[in-house]
Amino acid sequence: MAKSVTVLMGGWSVERDVSLDSGTACADALEQSGYNVTRVDAPRDIHKLIAALTPTPDVVFNALHGRFGEDGSIQGLLDIMAVPYTNSGVVASALAMHKQQAKTIFTAHGIPCPEGQVYYRENLSNAVLPEPPYVVKPVNEGSSIGVHIIRSGDNRSLLEDWPYGGAALVEPYIPGRELTVAVMDDQALGVTELCPLKGFYDYEAKYTDGKTEHLCPAPIPSIVAEQAKAYAVIAHKALGCRGVTRADFRYDDTKGSPGALSMLEVNTQPGMTPLSLVPEQAAHAGVEFTRLVGWMVENASCDA
Q1: Which of 42, 149, 173, 291 has its Cα between 20 and 30 A from that of 195?
Q2: Are residues 216 and 285 in the same domain?
Q3: Across the chain, what does the average pLDDT equal?
Q4: Are residues 197 and 239 located together in one domain of the fold?
Q5: What integer pLDDT is reported at residue 210 of this predicted model?
Q6: At 243, which CATH number?
Q7: Are residues 33 and 106 part of one domain?
Q8: Active site residues
Q9: Helices assigned H by DSSP within the chain
Q10: Residue 264 burial class via C-beta count within 10 angstroms: exposed 0-12, middle 13-18, buried 19 and up
Q11: What distance in Å separates the CA atoms of residue 4 and residue 7, rounded to the nearest whole number?
């Protein structure tokens, strides 16, 4: 009998639309592979969500993005229900989603990260912000939601009207190039360089066709590529991740080769849309999409 898989998608985070695209692509691929698939647009009402997962499937394919989908919240519910689910568990998800906490762990494992400080809205009147350029980002959002690069002459009152909770992370701006590394089964799949045609690699550049060029494999020195892959695997294991993750880096070679890597974050629920980086790297490594999502289902687990 075919394994039953419920694909959770949509939800209510700011990344809802991307999640719907990811979930649809994964559900289609799983159906093609012979799984018995149910698609659920996750409601915020906990009673309705539990009802949508009853009777419990063999596996939940978590295609939710953003807060509540990749911060440990939905993972905790599925642990209580004792339903295996794809990708990381509660602790790894929560740690990875909190960028400053994750950086503390990365640094302790020898991974270079940009120095940063969390600023709280109630303390802004006494806060001394760094000299530009610097980056302001939410502490616990994904997909570059709310990321701003503050340059000389820009309005520096951004934090006063900050819409992403009571805290923001401020980091020095690192010049150079954007790299990303997917990890599957504790192995790095490759390195991709992301080249936005305009501005930086923000939400629009990530999810709008034609806005960003993907260079896979990245045209960087082999020693840098191997180091990026090694750091991605170390971070994946240090957080306690499972399944598939994606690590994002800045690579500063503006002063010459080989340059320096800085890890920005690890995504425990990387995008699975037609434009997404993990499926692209997997395909380059010889793992086509239906095999990728099937592997994720077959390796699903929970902490019940």
Answers
A1: 291
A2: yes
A3: 90
A4: yes
A5: 65
A6: 3.30.470.20
A7: no
A8: 15, 143, 207, 246, 248, 265, 267, 271
A9: 16-32, 46-52, 73-81, 90-97, 99-108, 203-207, 222-239, 277-284, 289-298
A10: buried
A11: 10
Question: Per-residue pLDDT tens for 148-162?
Answer: 888 887 766 666 677
**Residue at 263: amino acid letter:** M
Both structure tokens of 89: 């568990």
**Number of structural domains the chain divides into:** 3
Q: Which of 62, 58, 78, 64 is nearest to 298 (CA)?
A: 58
Q: How far apart are the first and last CA of the chain?
A: 25
182 pLDDT above the threshold of 60: yes
Q: What is the dihedral of CA 76, 82, 84, 87, to 10 degrees?
A: 20
Q: Which domain holds residue 231?
A: 95-113+176-294
- Provide the CATH number for the domain around residue 68: 3.40.50.20
With b for 16 or more beta-carbon neighbours within 10 A and e for fewer, the 245-262 pattern comes to bbbbbbbebeeeeebebb
Q: What is the pTM of this model?
A: 0.91
Residues 103 and 236 in one domain: yes
- 20 located within any domain: yes
Token pair, residue 65, equals 């993005």
Asked if 168 and 208 sit in the same domain, the reply is no
Percent of the chain with pLDDT over 90: 70
